[in-house]
Automatic annotation (TrEMBL):
The chain crosses the membrane at residues 106-124. This is Lymphocyte antigen 6 family member G6C. One of its GO terms (molecular function) is identical protein binding. Residues 19-99 form the UPAR/Ly6 domain. Pfam families: UPAR_LY6 (PF00021).
Length: 125
């Protein structure tokens, strides 16, 4: 009985003290998540998700771990007046809590690259 209790307690402590990870990538239209990685969250910090808009049009998202140099500060409708960009940043502190951007589908990538090639050929003529 003691060994079962000790095993359960050590498993629980191991689970609680496990590293918290965040998704890390830049998500852009059509291509999806670029440079997808995972980062280990330092104690006392949070995962960040920053969505950037031009007016109401989504431009890109940045998913990452907060650091001592760049801690998470939630912000809604923070505006860069020079560029006209609007930033919305959310913070969270659970394992993989910042939303993972989906991988682009192969068909969507082929359509994008074909369109880009067609535009290049049109510009050459």
């Amino acid at each position: 009985m003691k060994s079962l209790l000790l095993f359960t307690l050590s498993a629980l402590l191991g689970w609680v003290s496990a590293d918290i990870r965040c998704h890390s990538c830049y998500k852009v239209p059509v291509l999806g998540c670029v440079d997808r990685q995972s980062c280990r969250l330092e104690p006392g910090h949070q995962c960040l998700t920053t969505n950037v808009y031009l007016g109401k049009m989504w431009v890109f998202s940045n998913l990452r771990c907060g650091t001592p140099e760049e801690p998470c500060h939630e912000a809604i409708n923070q505006t860069n007046h020079k560029l006209g960009l609007i930033y919305n940043t959310t913070c969270c502190s659970k394992d993989n809590c910042n939303s993972l951007a989906p991988r682009p589908t192969a068909a969507l990538t082929v359509v994008f690259l074909t369109s880009l090639a067609g535009l290049g050929l049109w510009l050459l003529h």
